[in-house]
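A.,

Following up on our hallway conversation. Structure tokens first:
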């Protein structure tokens, strides 16, 4: 049944119901409406016209009791309480009816099933939180390891730089030694003339 069809059936119910009379069943050419008033609201069950009316009434009573159980506040059923507990009611209704067949016989059984669902949900939440804590612890441990690695790398680089400075300061460059010669400057050589100088005789 499509969503549009369901909406059309409930709109038709709002026109068929007569608050001046105590109706509980309305038959149409297509379906049968079985309903029960809860404060200012109606709990309506739409069934096939050939379904077992007694079983349908039992199912409707269970839906009504479940609504009072899981959506009632100190002031009873109201629009605010129904809106607030709408998801709880969806889960409850899903447990009562599955594939068009009633799975729960009474409210006590429904409470037991919902308690089991709550316990399973609690365990699932705890398991999820445990995994989250483990993931956070693992991430913290990894971060710690990275910090240690970074510190070790910085320390190694610092030691390498210090060792280089010490080595460069201890190394001295040999300066060239210039030796001066103490030999006396060379004296100019004397020209020794051998023989006597020629004298020229005057002409007569």
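Then the amino acids I'd put at each of the 204 positions:
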């Amino acid at each position: 049944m499509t969503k549009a069809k369901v909406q059309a059936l409930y709109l038709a119910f709002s026109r068929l119901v007569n608050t001046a009379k105590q109706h509980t069943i309305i038959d149409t050419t297509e379906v049968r409406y079985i309903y029960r008033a809860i404060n200012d609201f109606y709990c309506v069950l739409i069934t096939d016209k050939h379904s077992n009316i007694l079983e349908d009434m039992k199912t409707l009573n269970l839906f009504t009791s479940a609504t009072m159980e899981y959506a009632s506040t100190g002031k009873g059923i109201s629009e605010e309480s129904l809106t607030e507990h709408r998801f709880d009611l969806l889960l409850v209704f899903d447990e009562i009816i599955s594939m068009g067949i009633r799975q729960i016989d009474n409210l006590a059984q429904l409470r037991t099933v919902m308690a089991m669902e709550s316990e399973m949900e609690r365990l699932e939440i705890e398991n999820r939180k445990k995994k989250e804590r483990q993931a956070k612890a693992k991430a913290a441990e990894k971060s710690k390891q990275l910090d240690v690695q970074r510190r070790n790398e910085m320390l190694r680089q610092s030691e390498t730089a210090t060792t280089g400075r010490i080595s460069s300061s201890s190394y001295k460059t040999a300066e060239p030694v210039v030796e001066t010669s103490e030999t006396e400057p060379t004296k100019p050589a004397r020209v020794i003339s051998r023989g006597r100088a020629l004298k020229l005789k005057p002409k007569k």
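The mean pLDDT is 76. Curious whether your intuition agrees with the design.

B.
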